[in-house]
Amino acid sequence: MMTEAGIDLATIMEKVGHEDMKTTMKIYTHVTNKMKKDASAKVRTLYKDALSNLIS
């Protein structure tokens, strides 16, 4: 939920009081369908921009 909202791991770690990033990652970094869709959209944009730069 927090990673889906775009909150970085270091901030999550501090907020929940974890000293070990592995614990934070295990609990708070589940990949959701929304995150997959957002990542796909970002990759499409990167490729589209790269192709546009090659052509122009």
TrEMBL record:
It comes from the Bacteria. InterPro entries: DNA_brk_join_enz, Integrase-like_cat_sf, Integrase_catalytic. Keywords: DNA recombination. One of its GO terms (biological process) is DNA recombination. One of its GO terms (molecular function) is DNA binding. Residues 1-41 form the Tyr recombinase domain. PROSITE patterns: TYR_RECOMBINASE. This is Phage integrase family protein. It comes from Virgibacillus chiguensis.
